[in-house]
């Protein structure tokens, strides 16, 4: 990055590099904006942002992947409108930092990422968090405030009404453990995974155009479910508050589609706790079964899966040594996450790739899910 930075900007004097990881979510999908629980793992795939001061009052951002440079006067950042461009992520974050009282200093930024874009492994949050750290450039912001600030950038500037999972895990990720996040209290605890298993993400290599609009639709449907449940249970503020028993007692009063959406969220929130419990007891079979239940619920009740994801899950379950599989992230493409015995890895890689190529004519990329550290400064160490 030092060489590229020099070639691009003439000098790397005073250069620092900040890193923020992508994530894979093990269970708890579409529960974060319903203030429920999620169980993600920070990956060793990450976005790196190098930054050094610019003497000429400009802010320049170069994306290595896109081979594209954009620049502004640092004084115009606060007035920029959304451009429907990758720079919306760093600019949205910059505007939120300005609103929080942090000036955006003139600087040159170089972005490099190993998080595959559009893969459902949270390349957006990795870009937001790494940019925020580069703009802050060692100025202090409490980690939870940083997560919320990056989420606000995505909701208000990018226009995606996401929950807090991706930004949160990118910051609070830890080596060797998954992290259970309570998306209401915004507290978390590390969840050590049992020995004798490993996780792989398998990329469908597709991102269906529906993803953004369907996400917004689901957020609205969940709000409608809350409104429909409130007359019977007035204390309910979000679907997080609804127990499976309460849900069954009101399900018939809700419009069919709304009831199915709510059933997914209510059962999925319960599944996170069950998965953590099974993990604590080393019950691999139960963990795998819960992953599959989660996928079926996303497929049939929440309707955010697609043929490619379903194929990868169904096919994985037929391979020896595979304990569980499900889609991960927002859906409509992106990745599945598969839980398997370490000795099954080579066989799984080969069989799943061959099957997927045979069916869809594309080679799926496969990534090991090694629980990794959250965001921070990586250079100088
Ligand atoms: C996307 C969003 C997250 C979360 C997941 C689904 O990744 O950014 O906030 O809602 O989808 O669990």
Mind sketching the topology for me?
Elements: H1 2-9, E1 16-25, E2 37-38, E3 40-53, E4 58-63, E5 68-73, H2 88-99, E6 107-113, H3 123-136, H4 143-158, H5 165-172, E7 177-182, E8 187-192, E9 198-207, H6 211-229, H7 244-250, H8 256-280, H9 284-301, H10 307-317, E10 322-327, E11 333-340, H11 345-360, E12 366-368, E13 376-379
Bound molecules: alpha-D-galactopyranose (GLA).
Structural description of this entry:
This protein is an alpha+beta fold and 381 residues long. The protein has two domains: 2-192 and 372-379, Ribosomal Protein S5, domain 2 (2-Layer Sandwich), CATH 3.30.230.10; 198-368, GHMP kinase, C-terminal domain (Alpha-Beta Plaits, 2-Layer Sandwich), CATH 3.30.70. Helix content is 40%, strand content 23%. The protein is built from eleven helices and 13 strands. The protein has helices at residues 2-9, 88-99, 123-136, 143-158, 165-172, 211-229, 244-250, 256-280, 284-301, 307-317, 345-360, and strands at 16-25, 37-38, 40-53, 58-63, 68-73, 107-113, 177-182, 187-192, 198-207, 322-327, 333-340, 366-368, 376-379. The strands form three sheets. It has a six-stranded mixed sheet, sandwiched between helices. It is globular and about 65 Å long. The relative contact order is 0.17. It binds alpha-D-galactopyranose (GLA). Alpha-D-galactopyranose binds at residues 25, 29-30, 32-33, 122, 162-163, 165-166, 329-330. Alpha-D-galactopyranose (GLA) binds at residues 25, 29-30, 32-33, 122, 162-163, 165-166, 329-330.
């Amino acid at each position: 990055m030092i060489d590229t930075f020099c070639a691009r900007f003439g000098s790397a004097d005073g250069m620092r590099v900040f890193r923020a990881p992508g994530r894979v979510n093990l269970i708890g999908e579409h529960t974060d904006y319903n203030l429920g629980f999620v169980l993600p793992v920070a990956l060793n795939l990450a976005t790196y942002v190098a930054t050094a001061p610019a003497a000429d009052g400009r802010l320049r951002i170069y994306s290595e992947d896109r081979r594209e440079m954009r620049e502004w006067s640092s004084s115009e950042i606060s007035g920029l409108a959304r451009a429907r461009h990758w720079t919306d992520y760093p600019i949205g974050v910059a505007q939120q930092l300005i609103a929080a009282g942090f000036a955006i200093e003139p600087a040159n930024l170089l972005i490099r990422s190993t998080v595959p874009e559009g893969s459902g492994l949270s390349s957006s949050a990795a870009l937001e968090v790494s940019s925020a750290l580069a703009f802050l450039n060692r100025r202090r912001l409490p980690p939870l405030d940083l997560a919320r600030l990056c989420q606000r950038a995505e909701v208000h500037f990018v226009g995606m009404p996401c929950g807090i999972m991706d930004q949160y895990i990118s910051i609070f990720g830890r080596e060797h453990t998954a992290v259970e996040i309570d998306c209401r209290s915004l507290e978390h605890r590390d969840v050590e995974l049992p020995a004798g298993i490993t996780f792989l993400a398998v990329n469908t290599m597709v991102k269906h155009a529906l993803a953004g609009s369907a996400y917004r639709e689901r957020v609205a449907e969940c709000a409608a479910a809350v409104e429909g449940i409130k007359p019977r249970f007035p204390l309910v503020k979000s679907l997080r508050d609804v127990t499976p028993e309460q849900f069954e007692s009101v399900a018939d009063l809700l419009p069919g589609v709304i009831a199915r959406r709510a059933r997914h969220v209510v059962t999925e929130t319960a599944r996170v706790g069950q998965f953590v419990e099974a993990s604590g007891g080393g019950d691999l079979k139960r963990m795998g079964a819960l992953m599959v239940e989660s996928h079926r619920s996303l497929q049939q009740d929440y309707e955010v899966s697609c043929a490619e994801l379903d194929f990868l899950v169904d096919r994985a379950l037929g391979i020896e040594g595979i304990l569980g599989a499900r889609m991960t992230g927002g859906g409509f493409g992106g990745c599945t996450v598969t839980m398997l015995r370490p000795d099954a890895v080579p066989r799984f890689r080969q069989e799943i790739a061959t099957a997927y190529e045979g069916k869809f004519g594309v080679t799926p990329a496969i990534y090991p899910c090694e629980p990794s550290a959250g965001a921070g400064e990586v250079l100088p160490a």
